[in-house]
Specification:
The protein is an alpha/beta fold and 101 residues long. 35% of the residues lie in helices and 29% in strands.
Length: 101
Amino acid sequence: MAVINITKENFEQEVLKSDKTVLLDFWATWCGPCQMVSPIVDEIAEERSDIKVGKINVDEQPELSIQFGVMSIPMLVAMKDGEVVNKAVGARPKEDILGLI
């Protein structure tokens, strides 16, 4: 499944109302560690059809960044049934990211 670009306009439908666990990647183009995590997140999206993977650009979606209390990026958030079940800040290896889900 392809990565979904999450915005404030599609957040409710794609994340809160999702019947699957959702992995969110909060990132920015200028963030070096985000560039390291991005291909891993893309890979997870392709390999795991049982979850939904979304990316949120913190510069373009400040409302969502505030809603999730993003202080540092990359920040990965796992959500199930509209609730945050896990989160981690900083670049992580694939195994650690999968462990969030």
